[in-house]
Each structure stands twice: as C-alpha cells, then as structure tokens.
Amino acid sequence: MRPSPDWLDAQYNNRLLVPDFARHLTQWQRDSEQARQNAGVLDLSYGAGPGETLDIFPSTQANAPVLVFIHGGYWRSLDKSDHSFVAPAFVEAGACVVVVNYALCPSVTVPTIALQLVKALVWVSRHIHHWGADPRNVHVQGHSAGGHLAAMMLACQWQQADPDGPAERVRTALSISGLHELETLRHVPFLAADLRLTAADARRCSPAWMPAPAHGQCVCVAGGDESGEFVRQAHLLQQAWGRRRVPEVAILPGLNHFSILGDYARAGTPLHQRALQCLGLA
C-alpha cells in the first residue's frame, strides 16, 4: 500500500522538519560569498544549455585530486553560488574543487539534469589539467538531489557518453542525504508539480534500480535527525549494489538535512574526514 500524501510530505519536506533551516541557508550564502571573493575561477561554461556553468577552486598542489561537488535543492532550487563554501577546507587539504550548476525543474526534467552532469564530467575530464589537477583522479560528491546525481555519475556508462574517453571516469562518489530511488518522489505532493516525474523517468533515473557500476565505490551518509525515508534511501544503494561498490553507509548522530552539509565542509569533522578518505587525502 502506498503511503498517504500527508506522510510523504512529512518525510520529504526538510524545511518543515528543520524549523531553523533559513539560518543554515543564510550561513551558506555568507560563507560562499567569502569563498568566491578569496579564490576561484567562476562561471566557466561546460555547455551551451541553460545553467551549464561551473566554478573551479584550484589546488596549489600539482596533480591534485578533483572533487566535483553537486548541490541539492530537489532538482528545482538553489545554485552553485550558494555552495562555494564547501570548497575552502578541501582546497586546503590538497584538492581541486569544481562546483557544478545545472538547469532546474520544472524548466527541465530530472533526466535532462542527469545528462547535464554527464556533460560537465566530460568537460572536467578534458580540461581540468589546465588548472594543474589530475583528470584521472576525479571524485563526485553531492548533497540531497546532488547525492542522487553523484551516484548516477558513478553508474554512468562512460564509453557510451564519451567514446573517446576512459571507461572509468569517476573513482568514487559520496552521497550525502542522497535520493537513490525516485518512484517514491513521484507521489510526494509538494514536489510533484515541479518534478513532473513519469514512471519511466523515475525508473531510469533511480541509481538503486541501475546495474552496479563496474568501477569505483560510493559511500552513503545521512543525518541521524533526518526522516526515516532519508535513512532508508541511504541504505538502499548498498542493498542494490552490494558492499563491494557501497562499502559504507553511515547515519551520523545529531545532524539534520541542513547541518550535515555544514559538517561536510568543516575540517576535522567525521564527515569531512570520510570525504577526504574518498579523495585519498586522509
């Protein structure tokens, strides 16, 4: 039996679950403005379509690993410029950070967004060496809808997307409060009108319903103060792909859907250390 609409809204509407969510968003914007003033190559185009831009925060180290960060917002809100704050601690640790933008629903569909991220990763593979980073050492990490897209990039059939490039384009993924099956999202009332997910789109854009990747690993995390559905979604990918591809699922106590991203971006936290381990920097 399908859960009731009210129950689905209560599970997935994080702004209702976290009464002080606006404080987190304001802090993200403030810290991002500072990060963008201090460093970065901003608003480079990786394609000609709407939203197809990215920011690069280069490392001072040669042949640095590349962290591609994908923002959340249920595929329908927020912007890369709200998430520049994730870059400084990772740059300090030795990574080259790329923060990617994409077009938003309802102007586009979720499958279109996934294809935009494929295009962005192809661009990174071809061009990131100009900023001294190693295109053979790319890792994708994302929050919420960005966690979904990070898992999609690990599962991508890269030789179909870019026949001239390597089959293994992404070494690791980190899905932070990620959404790994989208059929449930089709029935969440406050999202339905914007996402316009069809059954076919939900099926082909659910990482948990895709074959396990031939290469790489994905770590899935969620906050202990998130809803039961976000905890379920975190475990789902390991259940689908197995422990070889998803070696760790961590539910981090005391963190909600917004505070978890602050921990990710702050040096010294357990989540930040997990992210550095994915990059080979811990």
Describe the overall structure:
Helix 11 (259-265) crosses helix 12 (270-279). Strands 1-2-4-3-5-6-7-8 form an eight-stranded mixed beta sheet, sandwiched between helices. The protein has a single domain, classed as Alpha/Beta hydrolase fold, catalytic domain (Rossmann fold), CATH 3.40.50.1820. Strand 1 and strand 2 form a beta hairpin. 46% of the residues are buried. The mean pLDDT is 97. Helix content is 40%, strand content 18%. The termini are far apart. By secondary structure, it is of the alpha/beta class.
Overview in brief:
The protein has 282 residues and is an alpha/beta fold. 40% of the residues lie in helices and 18% in strands. Helix 11 (259-265) crosses helix 12 (270-279).
What is the oligomer described by this structure? single chain
CATH topology: Rossmann fold
CATH class: Alpha Beta
Instruction: Output the CATH homologous superfamily.
Output: Alpha/Beta hydrolase fold, catalytic domain
* SSE arrangement, N to C: HHHEEEHEHEHHEHHEHEHH
Number of individual domains: 1
Number of helices: 12
Fold blueprint:
Layout (H helix, E strand, L loop, with lengths): L4 H8 L1 H4 L3 H18 L2 E5 L7 E5 L6 E7 L16 H7 L2 E5 L9 H18 L5 E11 L1 H11 L2 H4 L10 E5 L12 H7 L3 H6 L12 E7 L4 H14 L6 E5 L6 H7 L4 H10 L3
Parallel strand pairs: 3-4, 3-5, 5-6, 6-7, 7-8
Antiparallel strand pairs: 1-2, 2-4
Notable features of this structure?
alpha/beta, 282 residues, single chain, Rossmann fold, globular, 8-stranded mixed sheet
